[in-house]
Amino acid sequence: MSIADIKKSFEQKSAKSIEAFKHELTKIRTGRAHPGILDQVQVEYYGSMVPISQVANVSLLDARTISVQPWEKGLGQKIEKAIRESDLGLNPASQGDLIRVPMPPLTEERRKELTKVVRNAGEDAKVAVRNLRRDANEQAKKMLKDKLIPEDDERRSGEDIQKLTDKTIAEIDKLVQGKEAEILAV
């Protein structure tokens, strides 16, 4: 393994951390509706649990209403029950085959709670990136100890990894600020 391999591995892992953080942010609902909020809701379909998106068409009717159109007739009640029993606090209403899921407006108190949740998720993502930095620096130190690289290369790799860490943490901060602004927008 070389210094370039360590840096490349660090970049890939930190990109994965950011993707995981973005995925986590999509689960945190704002006042607006978006179809992705139902991604983690599972419905029973022929004896196995599957995401709603695999058994129905999920789309937006307007800014505050999600529509769910089941692909099979008998699934409507199961989907409606799964949405109601999820921890999202949503109350679906069926109109024939179509299920309407109105998004309740957020209270000011709930908005503040959600910003705290976003900040905590951001902090967790930063900790993950810092752990990756520590691992990369330890690999470089081990290479130095085994006399595979000179001291200058080890020091330079530490500086490069720190720059990448700073860039990644700045991106996480930007995502946190964007999500907070989205939540606090009335």
Automatic annotation (TrEMBL):
<feature type="region of interest" description="Disordered">
    <location>
        <begin position="141"/>
        <end position="162"/>
    </location>
</feature>
<comment type="similarity">
    <text>Belongs to the RRF family.</text>
</comment>
<keyword id="KW-0648">Protein biosynthesis</keyword>
<dbReference type="InterPro" id="IPR036191">
    <property type="entry name" value="RRF_sf"/>
</dbReference>
<dbReference type="Pfam" id="PF01765">
    <property type="entry name" value="RRF"/>
</dbReference>
<dbReference type="GO" id="GO:0043023">
    <property type="term" value="F:ribosomal large subunit binding"/>
</dbReference>
<comment type="function">
    <text>Responsible for the release of ribosomes from messenger RNA at the termination of protein biosynthesis. May increase the efficiency of translation by recycling ribosomes from one round of translation to another.</text>
</comment>
<dbReference type="GO" id="GO:0002184">
    <property type="term" value="P:cytoplasmic translational termination"/>
</dbReference>
<feature type="domain" description="Ribosome recycling factor">
    <location>
        <begin position="21"/>
        <end position="184"/>
    </location>
</feature>
<dbReference type="InterPro" id="IPR023584">
    <property type="entry name" value="Ribosome_recyc_fac_dom"/>
</dbReference>
<dbReference type="GO" id="GO:0005829">
    <property type="term" value="C:cytosol"/>
</dbReference>
<dbReference type="InterPro" id="IPR002661">
    <property type="entry name" value="Ribosome_recyc_fac"/>
</dbReference>
<protein>
    <recommendedName>
        <fullName>Ribosome-recycling factor</fullName>
    </recommendedName>
</protein>
<keyword id="KW-0963">Cytoplasm</keyword>
